[in-house]
Amino acid sequence: MGRFNGKTAIVTGGALGIGGGVARRLAADGANVLIADIADDAAAANVARIKYAGGNAVSIHANMGSHDDIRGMVDSAITEFGRLDMMVQNAWGSPTTRVAGSAVEVPEEGWDEGMAIMTKALFLGAKYAVPEMQKVGGGSIVNISSVHGLLMSKGGLVYEAAKSAVIGMTRQMAIDFGPLGIRVNAICPGHIVTEKSTEGRWSKMPETLGFFADQYPVRRVGSPEDIAGAISFLCSDDASFITGHPLVVDGGLTIQLQEDFGVQQAKYARANEFQMPY
């Protein structure tokens, strides 16, 4: 039997990338999975993939920038599966306004939009998920932060601030909801190679991926499966005494001397007119 048999999970942004991998892993571990995403076709394809592998999943169209969609997402999980035990808050969309840059460069609208998706959505997700988890005696929430919640990079005010806030929100939620039997943790991924990054950045400059991997102590970048495995652990009874923790899953990136990494990054960027992501 799977570790999550009979339980229900919501995965926001569960069509592709990290969320896609998480949805597949939780389903493989026995959970009924609701994928909430705006990429309807990709979400349906991931549901089909899960069912082909013997799992159970459904998808709904949900924009994490919409209060009504977030509330409806939780309602849909209850309607479809009768309960809610786990929620992985992963979604991140394509902003319609500029979010990259310093405080001088980012427009107010960019700040508002970025924060709405990366922080307000997590607040609203918990608002509606926690009462349902309480009904079944507890549950687990995992919020996706980033190594950018721990290490800052130039020109990334909105993203860095939001991912730092996710860690603070996670700790606060752990305090607030622990007495209800609900654990709340965060994942801080390093660079994860996804379908979109492969189609975009790495397909155009495939030779750079090896150079980038060499900056990690384990000499590779991450995969969605790496994050999915960590999340499955955090949601399981094996992690029953872990809450409020930002688990770093980054191939060792954050433990090395950042000045050394920064020198390599700067040299490479100058040589290739390319800014490497974490």
Q: How is this structure best described in words?
A:
This protein has 278 residues and is α/β, with parallel strands linked by helices. The protein has one domain (8-192, 223-253): NAD(P)-binding Rossmann-like Domain (Rossmann fold, 3-Layer(aba) Sandwich), CATH 3.40.50.720. It contains nine helices and seven strands; from the N terminus they run E-H-E-H-E-H-E-H-E-H-E-H-H-H-E-H. Strands 3-2-1-4-5-6-7 form a seven-stranded parallel β-sheet, with helices on both faces. It is globular and about 45 Å long. The chain starts with 7 loop residues before the first strand and ends in a 6-residue tail after the last helix.
| Beginning-to-end CA distance, first to last residue | 37 Å
CATH H level, superfamily name = NAD(P)-binding Rossmann-like Domain
Task: Write down the overall geometry.
Answer: globular
Major sheet size, sense and barrel closure = 7 strands, parallel
CATH architectural designation: 3-Layer(aba) Sandwich
Q: Round the Cα radius of gyration to an integer and report it.
A: 18 Å
Strand order of the largest sheet: 3-2-1-4-5-6-7
Query: Uncertain spans, ≥5 residues at pLDDT below 50?
Result: 273-278
Structural class: alpha/beta
Which range does the strand content fall in? 5-15%
Helices and strands, with pairings:
Elements: E1 8-12, H1 17-28, E2 32-37, H2 40-52, E3 56-61, H3 67-81, E4 86-89, H4 108-135, E5 139-144, H5 157-177, E6 182-189, H6 195-204, H7 207-213, H8 224-235, E7 246-249, H9 258-272
Parallel strand pairs: 1-2, 1-4, 2-3, 4-5, 5-6, 6-7
Helix pairs in contact: 1-2, 1-8, 3-4, 4-5
